[in-house]
Amino acid sequence: MAKDRKGKSISFVLPAYNEEENIEDAIRQIVSVASSLDLDEYEVIVVDDGSDDRTGEIIDRLAREDPHIKAFHHPTNLGYADALKTGFKNAKMDLIFYTDSDLQFDITEIKNFLPASEDYDIVCGFRIYRFDPLTRLILAWGYNLLARTIFRLRVRDIDCAFKLFRREVFDVIEIRSKKFFVDTEILAKARYHGFRMTEIGVRHYPRTRGRSTVRPSHVLSTLKELAKMWAEIYLGLGRK
User: What do you get for the CA distance between the two ends of the chain, in Å?
Assistant: First the structure.
C-alpha cells in the first residue's frame, strides 16, 4: 500500500508520564536532530499523560520557547495507548514518528528510517541488544512469539518504541486499546489492511533516570486485549 511520499515532513510524537528528569533532554534531542535533517517541516508533539510531577510544566515552557513544540495534556493518567492516540490524532505532517521519553534510544537513528519510508508504510525499529531486567526480557520474548504467531506478523520486536509511519496508516486504523497492547494492535491492524512493513535495527540504552511504568502485572491485561483484538480483527466481533 506504500505510495509516493508527498514531502519530507515529520510529526515527532512523544508520550510522557512522570518524566520530569528526562523530558527536556528528550525534546531538545528531537529538535536538534529534526533541525539537522532535510525536512520541509516538522513538529514535536508531547503528550503529558496526567503526570503528577513537573513534566507538564516543563513541556509548556518549552512549547512557549519553540513553535515547533506542541504540548498536550491529559487531566488524569489515561494510559500509554491514549497518550499515543492523542499524539497521532493531532499530528499534521506526512510522516509520523514516535518514541518514548526515557532516553533509551538514539534519536539520530531516524535518519536510517527515512529512505525505507519511500517503499514502506511502517518502519519498525528492533532493539539490537535490549537493556532491560531479565524478567522483562523473558516476558517480552514470550509475548513477541505469541503475538507474531497469532497475528502472523513478521516483526521480531513488536513493542519497540521507535517507529515511523505514513500518516495514511492512522487514517485507516482506529486505536482501541488502552495500555501497552497498542503496538501490537497497530501492527496487527496494519497487516490486516495490507500496509507494508520493514524493520531496522536500533541501539537501546539502559534507563538512567526516572522509573519505568511497565509492570509484570500488565501481562494478564495485555493477554486479554490480545484475545479480544484477534476476535475483532478476524471474526469481526466488537467492531462499530
Answer: 24
How far apart CA 159 and CA 182 sit, in angstroms, is 8
**Given 48, 157, 159, 183, which residue is catalytic?**
183
pTM of the model: 0.85
pLDDT of the chain, 240 residues: tens digit per residue? 555 545 589 999 999 999 999 999 999 999 999 999 989 999 999 999 999 999 999 999 999 999 999 999 999 999 999 999 999 999 999 999 999 999 999 999 999 999 999 999 999 999 997 766 667 667 777 777 888 888 888 898 998 999 999 999 999 999 988 777 899 999 999 999 999 999 999 999 877 765 655 555 556 677 777 777 777 776 765 554
Is 66 a catalytic site residue? no
Rg over alpha carbons for the chain, rounded to the nearest Å, is: 17
Residue pair 12/34 in contact by the 8 Å Cβ criterion:
yes
Joined together, the cell numbers standing for residue 126 give 528492533
C-alpha distance from residue 173 to each of 102, 167, 183, 186, 188 (Å) = 26, 10, 12, 7, 10
